[in-house]
Amino acid sequence: MINIINMKNSNGGGFCTVSSNQACTRLGIARDTLYAYVSRGLVRTIAQPGDARKSLYDRRDIAALLERKTRGRSRRSVAESTINWGEPVLASSITRIADGAFFYRGKSAVELSRSATLEETLELLANVRCKPNGRAGTREAIDYPTTAFDRILTLLAAQATGAQRGDGRPRAGRIMRLTALNAAGLAGDRGDPIHSLLAKAWSRNPEASDLIRRALVLCADHELNASTYAARVAASAGASLPASLLAGLATLSGSAHGGLTVRCRRWMEMVEARGDSGNPSLSVSGKEPPGFGHPLYPDGDPRTAELLVHCPVSRKWQRIIDRVHDATGLRPALDFSLAHLERELHLPSGAGLGIFAVGRTAGWLAHIFEQRRTGQLIRPRAQVDI
After folding, report:
1. Is residue 97 a contact partner of residue 91, using CB atoms and an 8 Å limit?
2. What is the pTM of this model?
3. How far from 32 is each of 35, 39, 62, 256, CA to CA, in Å?
4. 40 and 187 housed in the same domain
5. pLDDT tens profile 23-45
6. Residue 292 is part of which domain span?
7. Stretch 320-337: mean pLDDT, rounded?
8. What is the pLDDT of residue 190?
9. Which of 143, 176, 195 is the last residue of a domain?
10. Which listed residue (294, 325, 340, 367) is catalytic?
11. Catalytic: 257?
């Protein structure tokens, strides 16, 4: 049996550790190899209590290495071979392509094209009911208010149909600035830095400008997240710069991505209105609240930690954060800090998501240009689930 010890790391987060002998046994490696993993940053260590000459090793890192070892072929090589017309990587029951033909939910698309309307095809593919006027029927109408995010969406949608010519790097700065101006609801360009434009439009707090500046920079990029991947897919297909950004922006709006910021603010307001601070982890249908936890940061999101240093939460909210952590093991993520910033600075509703979108534009642009340089079309195959 492996003896697991719960320890604290330098960031205040906890993790479980094992000894060097236990780590080597699990991985089936020599101690020198374990030390090599540590030097390469693959395994984190802390000094063993009572004997600083010995180290304890993060059990999660050992488990991750064991998974990589048992998986055989590297995830990188698999990914590189699948996104470029490689093996199927997504399960789907919508369309199947086989033997020179393609089928919509098991029906020949060619045969359907001989009699079916587009509305009927939509009903088949998306499993929705179309009204006689051709609009997809929904159970309820949703009226979205005009927010910073909506204004950016409108801007990019209008520009997405523009000419491809001149759609390169010199235009990138202009497009990012236009997104900020639209987010702020400003008709003219005053020449101020983007964070100043947003602060002047949204807040009278003298600290707003610097806090927004910090948030914009922290939001600028985050590797291949869902919205960035969507932007790269669009760019790989030769979409224009605004169209590629629009793909990223639309994905960012999802409730499991940037839309978590909006959900988190609503949760925060609900907690205060209902007085749920005593049991906040059960404030959303018995699940953990939105804006907490990030798979890449089990010990806490560094973007959140940085923002909360300069825009700290109240004692009341620190107690709520602590209770959520005690109940779920989760710490605040970026969405929480943006929602908190929005509330603390009395910014317009949705401004947190607007900051996220404006900031992430910088990263999207960088990824779009990088993808263009590859000249590669991202086109995975589908694993048909019948």
Report:
1. no
2. 0.73
3. 5, 11, 15, 42
4. no
5. 999 999 998 889 888 988 889 98
6. 146-380
7. 92
8. 75
9. 143
10. 294
11. yes
